[in-house]
Structure prediction request, 177 residues.
Amino acid sequence: MKKFWAIFGWICLGIFLQFKFNVLYGIVFLENLNFHDRTYFVKMNLKETDAALRVLEVETVVHHSLGKDYFANVYIPKDYKVLNKEPYLGTESIPGYVAYSMSMKRKYRDVKAKNDFIIQPVDPKSGVEPKPILVFFENLKQRLHKDETFRLATTEGNTRLEGPEMAEAKYPQQLGM
Prediction:
């Protein structure tokens, strides 16, 4: 019986060491891995202000995430000038787009960010054909998801956002994602 308890104790010690002495973290990690899909949400809303200015509200969520480092970058077409944010130069450049970083913060199982961009067409008199707003979700190793659901367009000085209220994509959980 003593040998059984000795082996059982070593196994428990190994489990505690694997999960960094935090049993709750280990339970949540295993539950997320086995029972939940990883879901990416993108919500956008365009609010009108004075003249040709618009406020583009962008909210990104990685639901049931296993990783600790998630980054979201929003690519806005160069036909629009963003007045309140500086471009983010730490990501890949895409011709015709300017990148802006979202400040992702972990909140229990989710990683969330919400930013407001004050946008204005570069040339308000001429129209802009609908162009997608790109949202890339990445971690330190790879690109996890790319969203092109929402489109910005300007006709006769009126800027509008085309797309659903919320875009969603689901993937099965995997280690290293």
